[in-house]
């Protein structure tokens, strides 16, 4: 096919471009998502399409289309089915199409259901490639969307070899380079660039006093990279970094409040971002910053939570996410010279768990949608073998698909877990701490003032739940939640922005906690005095026995590329190895103890396998035993105090798709 980007103005032109007949391309539009547009307010048969979008669609669907049989018998069957469906099917088809349309004729459709983008992914301008972190190794990888082939752009080795990792990537306007954040061996982030073929990698910015750098966009001419810088004192800055020289130009400084959604206007004169105007609010407004002077003005000021999605390619409007109508929808407002030029208008209801990816030159907006679901399960165990007595059951049927991180109360009468109450991404996710009675099933919910929290640990006296999470200032750390009031008290803050402790546990007397950060070892902290004692320098995962005497420690041994489970005295001392899994890339997950202190429960996972299997091994040493539980995403296993059941989380937390919103530029916005 030709690659020049022209507009095709009829079914006949579209069919000729694709070298098919008109009926075939019309069928492809209905059944395969062929990107064809209709002129609004004109006759239905008046259509048009953009050649660049047809090329991207063809590259993605070609293999499937060419593999479908084209026999006359199949054609006759399809024709007969279509005739039979005239009476009822047309109504259903119209209903389906109506559901895909937003306000004022905006069309929303799924494009790449198997792309699996994360929030830090970047879509290339020609819609052919997706760059993001490869979580099997931590490398930056590029995926060809048409074929699904993945290629790593960095080569750090496995997680056994290094804890370095890529963080958020942005493809250049030319489509030939990628800017990305990189967590280095020293524990701070750098800004790097690499060519899309994997060559030409270099460091643009590295400053230990500014340990966090996050690329957000390229200038339209490709000369500068727009970044957010995070300093050790928690303050933030918007800056531009030269691609040629690596020099830094600071545009605007902020306190602990973090600017997000940074995007250049198409002409490069302005930078849009969202920001909480008040220190006591989570809700954000949208602002414009003049790139030359750093002067800023509000674009969207509203009591609701408003987040920038991007600038339309004409530069005369912005698209943003807002919950002002009750659910998170897509809104648009006219802008000019860095100021709003009229009221905002709704263009799409219920955007779900979505985040921005790219506007095309023709005004189509591509975005990621999180589709994963997780739940909390309870399973009864055989007292002798520990094997599952019956299939696991859902702990609760409320908020199905949106629960994680279970924990039993010390008396075994309650089960706590984290519930996601509504759509959101990152620190926009509304979370509740749900406490459920085991006897009655009755639930009550607490809403702690934390942006995010996970890994619940109930205190021995039953008064508090320890979590690791982020507060409203984006400070990672350990926090104590009062189970009666929901009040939050910080126990310890992390040393770097958004770093969360991996694991934590209460001492049996409740006077201290044990926790560890990646690269910082296992630490015991006295709550009353704040005094800390390093227990162990090398640890990958740990669990404290119910009697407080022993630590089960999982480590990744780099020299042998093995996963090793050790038992260590809680006060420090010589480690004793109880299990070694020599397969490279096998990780021990869901580490916990049985209620009688005799066994350590753990899950195993290997790269490329979605399901995890639950095992136990005697703490005194011996052969591991499978418990007969194999589930996708199995994690955070917690043993009930009676020793006869466990609670755990399972599901698909990270699955996602790419969708597109079309006809945006045809919306008539009020001035």
Describe the fold and architecture.
By secondary structure, this protein is mostly beta strands. The protein folds into three domains: 7-105, Orthogonal Bundle (Arc Repressor Mutant, subunit A), CATH 1.10.10; 107-371 and 657-666, Neuraminidase (6 Propeller), CATH 2.120.10; 374-653, Neuraminidase. It contains five helices and 52 strands. The strands form 13 sheets. Strands 21, 22, 23, 24 and 25 form a five-stranded antiparallel β-sheet that branches. Strands 4-52-27-26 form a four-stranded antiparallel β-sheet, with no helix packed on it. Helix 1 packs across helix 2. The longest helix has 17 residues, at 51-67. The radius of gyration is 27 Å and the shape is globular. The two termini are 42 Å apart. Mean pLDDT is 84; it is low at 40-45 and 67-99.
Q: What average pLDDT do the residues reach?
A: 84
The level-1 CATH class of the largest domain: Mainly Beta
Class derived from helix and strand content: mainly beta
In CATH, the topology of the largest domain is named Neuraminidase
The Rg value, from CA coordinates, equals 27 Å
Q: How many helical elements?
A: 5
What's the CATH architecture name of the largest domain?
6 Propeller
Question: Which word captures the global form?
Answer: globular
Q: What number of structural domains do the residues give?
A: 3
Unreliable runs: 40-45, 67-99
């Amino acid at each position: 096919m030709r690659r020049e980007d022209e507009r095709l103005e009829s079914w006949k032109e579209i069919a000729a471009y694709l070298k098919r007949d008109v009926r075939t391309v019309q069928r492809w539009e209905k059944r395969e998502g062929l990107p064809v547009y209709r002129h609004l307010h004109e006759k239905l048969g008046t259509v048009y399409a953009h050649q660049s979008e047809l090329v991207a669609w063809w590259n993605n669907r070609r293999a499937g289309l060419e593999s479908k049989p084209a026999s006359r018998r199949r054609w006759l069957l399809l024709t007969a089915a279509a005739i039979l469906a005239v009476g009822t099917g047309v109504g259903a088809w119209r209903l389906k199409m109506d559901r895909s349309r937003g306000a004022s004729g905006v069309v929303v459709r799924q494009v790449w259901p198997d792309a699996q983008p994360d929030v830090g992914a970047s879509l290339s301008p020609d819609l052919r490639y997706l760059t993001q972190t490869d979580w099997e190794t931590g490398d930056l990888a590029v995926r060809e969307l048409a074929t699904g082939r993945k290629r790593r752009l960095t080569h750090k080795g496995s997680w056994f070899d290094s804890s370095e990792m890529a963080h958020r990537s942005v493809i250049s306007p030319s489509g030939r380079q990628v800017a990305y954040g990189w967590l280095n061996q020293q524990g701070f982030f750098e800004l790097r660039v690499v060519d899309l073929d994997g060559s030409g990698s270099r460091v643009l910015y590295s400053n230990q006093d500014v340990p966090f750098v996050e690329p957000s966009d390229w200038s339209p001419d490709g000369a500068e990279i727009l970044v957010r810088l995070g300093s050790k004192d928690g303050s933030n800055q918007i800056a531009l970094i030269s691609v040629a020289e690596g020099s830094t130009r600071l545009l605007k400084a902020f306190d602990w409040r973090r600017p997000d959604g940074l995007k250049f206007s198409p002409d490069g004169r302005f930078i849009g971002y969202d920001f909480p105007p008040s220190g006591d609010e989570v809700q954000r407004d949208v602002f414009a910053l003049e790139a030359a002077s750093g002067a800023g003005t509000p674009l969207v000021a509203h009591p609701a939570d408003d987040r920038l999605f991007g600038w339309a390619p004409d530069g005369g409007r912005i698209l943003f996410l807002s919950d002002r109508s009750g659910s998170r929808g897509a809104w648009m407002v006219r802008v000019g010279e860095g100021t709003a030029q009229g009221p905002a208008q709704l263009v799409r209801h219920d955007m779900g768990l979505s985040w921005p990816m790219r506007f095309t030159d023709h005004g189509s907006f591509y975005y990621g949608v999180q589709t994963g679901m997780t739940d909390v399960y309870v399973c009864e165990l055989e007292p002798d073998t520990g094997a599952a007595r019956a299939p696991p059951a859902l702990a609760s049927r409320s908020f199905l698909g949106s629960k994680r991180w279970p924990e039993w109360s010390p008396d075994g009468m309650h089960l706590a877990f984290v519930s996601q109450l509504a759509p959101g991404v990152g620190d926009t996710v509304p979370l509740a701490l749900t406490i459920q009675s085991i006897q009655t099933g009755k639930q009550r919910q607490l809403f702690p003032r934390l942006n995010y929290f996970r890994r619940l640990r109930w205190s021995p006296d039953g008064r508090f739940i320890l979590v690791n999470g982020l507060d409203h200032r984006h400070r990672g750390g350990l926090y104590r939640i009062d189970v009666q009031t929901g009040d939050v008290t910080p126990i310890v803050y992390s040393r770097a922005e958004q770093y969360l402790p991996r694991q934590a546990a209460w001492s049996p007397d409740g006077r201290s906690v044990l926790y560890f950060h990646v690269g910082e070892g296992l630490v015991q902290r006295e709550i009353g005095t704040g005094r800390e004692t390093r227990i162990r320098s090398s640890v990958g995962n740990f669990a404290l026995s119910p009697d407080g005497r022993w630590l089960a420690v999982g480590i990744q041994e780099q020299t042998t590329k093995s996963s090793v489970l050790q038992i260590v005295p809680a006060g420090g001392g010589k480690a004793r190895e109880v299990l070694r899994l020599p397969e490279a890339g096998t990780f021990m997950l869901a580490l916990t103890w049985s209620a009688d202190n005799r066994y350590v429960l753990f899950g195993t996972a290997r790269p490329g396998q979605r399901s995890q299997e639950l095992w136990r091994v005697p703490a005194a040493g011996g052969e591991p035993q499978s418990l007969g539980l194999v589930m996708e995403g199995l994690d955070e296993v917690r043993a009930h105090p009676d020793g006869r059941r466990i609670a755990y989380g399972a599901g698909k937390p990270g699955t996602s798709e790419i969708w597109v919103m079309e006809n945006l530029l045809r919306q008539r916005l009020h001035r």
